[in-house]
Predict the structure.
Amino acid sequence: MRTRHAAALTVILATVLSACSSGAQPGWTFAPTPPPSPAASGAASAAPSAGASGAPSAAPSGSPAAPGGAAATVLELTASGVAFDKTDLAAPAGVAFQIKFTNNDAGIPHNVAIHKDSPTGAIVWQGEIFSGTDSRTYDVPALPAGTYGFSCVVHPNMTGTLTVK
Ligand SMILES: [Cu+2]
């Protein structure tokens, strides 16, 4: 009986071991699999080429627009009830843009000024002050990337944030 038990155990152990070894095999096949990283590098090399081809095509299409329109970006902002309709604006860095400013307050002067860092920072640019109801399309020079504040110089409580990036 003991012998049979031993034999049975041996068979079981053999089965378990073979199962383990067979299980290990896939592990080893997977280990070499990492080399597929070369495939990843291949994909990476493909990406750069795609980006390179994409960048040139984008640049040409962008440059023609710049000479013609001067400002491709037009931000719209409205003052009503001595308040701006927006508290957040965004503009591209290093490119002149425009602000189409509408003053809906009859007889009340407003404008748009851009300040460094925040609405209380130094003014880096400001548009003409005019009374409503009227509108102006301001030409804003290129600004370096960063956070700016905008305000109405007539009403310091009229403020917002301009993100240039
Ligand atoms: Cu104002």
Q: What stands out?
A: Residues 71-164 form a domain with the Immunoglobulin-like fold (CATH 2.60.40.420). The chain is about 40% helix and 30% strand. The radius of gyration is 33 Å.
